[in-house]
Prior knowledge:
Organism: Thermoclostridium stercorarium (strain ATCC 35414 / DSM 8532 / NCIMB 11754)
Low-confidence stretches: 294-298, 300-305
Pfam family, one: APH
Protein name: Aminoglycoside phosphotransferase
GO molecular function: transferase activity
Shape: globular
Domain Aminoglycoside phosphotransferase: 42-258
Structural class: alpha+beta
Amino acid sequence: xxxxxxxxxxxxxxxxxxxxxxxxxxxxxxxxxxxxxxxxxxxxxxxxxxxxxxxxxxxxxxxxxxxxxxxxxxxxxxxxxxxxxxxxxxxxxxxxxxxxxxxxxxxxxxxxxxxxxxxxxxxxxxxxxxxxxxxxxxxxxxxxxxxxxxxxxxxxxxxxxxxxxxxxxxxxxxxxxxxxxxxxxxxxxxxxxxxxxxxxxxxxxxxxxxxxxxxxxxxxxxxxxxxxxxxxxxxxxxxxxxxxxxxxxxxxxxxxxxxxxxxxxxxxxxxxxxxxxxxxxxxxxxxxxxxxxxxxxxxxxxxxxxxxxx
Length: 310
């Protein structure tokens, strides 16, 4: 164990002396702003990696504590141990990898889509005034038109030296519709998850059901289309259309979801450009994303399977 892991163990021991620490796993890659310790597959501790990232832990605890009364999906019980340390119950399940999802039969895929749709429908329809009274703030992704235009201009300027003409045109075609339509970024803010990636959607292979939703660090008021965009970005538009059957998505929301899905890669490229400029690669991670390409071993409905020779 390294020094930080030993320090984390001491913090847990001093706060919960009765807790059995015979089995503890550390995860320093899945948390964007925090290090994670899983104790006996029962309790999860999150330690803020930076002073400023403690706010994300507090936000998760506050949001989850508030929305539990409105959501039927299992959510972890989250509490703050120290200003920079949180504790939550362990939720069994594995990330909803797209490869696993698309190998399920269509009935099971629909059942999973319905679970996600129900969760988002309930979350997005929590009364705004009640959330405001509870002190829930904005998600980091709650940006208006002016903020997005500035974000896009800055991003293009930073990544341009590393882009071919093809990539520049590709990006222009993504951005242009959003820039030219002055009403593109108009929406009524609702409570959103803000980071609905597959590793925050836990799935049980035996029951073939979602067992819980985690990762509420960036939850708050924002554009509901952003949650749809994250699903589209990682699980594909075809799966989002399954969600659409149970939680209808308007054409305006769908276009913004596509924008968010497309632009997320370029936002990461912008961050990498900043790392190159500062020579600080401490936040560098290799992302894994899927497109609407079937996983190896899956069978397309439009492809005939060649029978095996006897």
